[in-house]
Specification:
106 residues; alpha/beta; two-stranded parallel ribbon
Length: 106
């Protein structure tokens, strides 16, 4: 989901003391602070490009553990063959919101 479209909806759905991490966005964001204040929740931004090698190792291990333990279940909206990468890019850039990941298979 793109933050400039969905962040306020995410804040409505967030649990008390919940955390939302923004990892991408394509526009300005207007936030309603009271959606966070009552729940004492927070929003932060991050860029995976800033992760250290050790952090990448930790992230990868956590994701793998979650999938193996069956508590992390990625939702896949659509899969593309490698020769469909241009269409996948187009779909990502033209979508204002989606449910699930767009996957390019090798």
């Amino acid at each position: 989901m793109v933050s400039h479209v969905n962040l306020n909806n995410d804040l409505i759905l967030m649990n008390a003391r919940g955390k939302t991490v923004i990892i991408g966005g394509r526009g300005d964001i207007t936030v309603t602070p009271r959606l966070m204040m009552g729940k004492e929740s927070s929003v932060t931004g991050m860029a995976l490009a800033n992760a250290t090698e050790a952090e990448w190792t930790d992230i990868s291990a956590a994701l793998l553990n979650g999938m193996e333990a069956d508590w992390l279940k990625p939702v896949i909206q659509k899969q593309y063959e490698l020769d469909g990468a241009a269409q996948a890019y187009h779909d990502v850039m033209q979508t204002t919101g989606h449910l699930g990941k767009l996957i390019i298979k090798p």
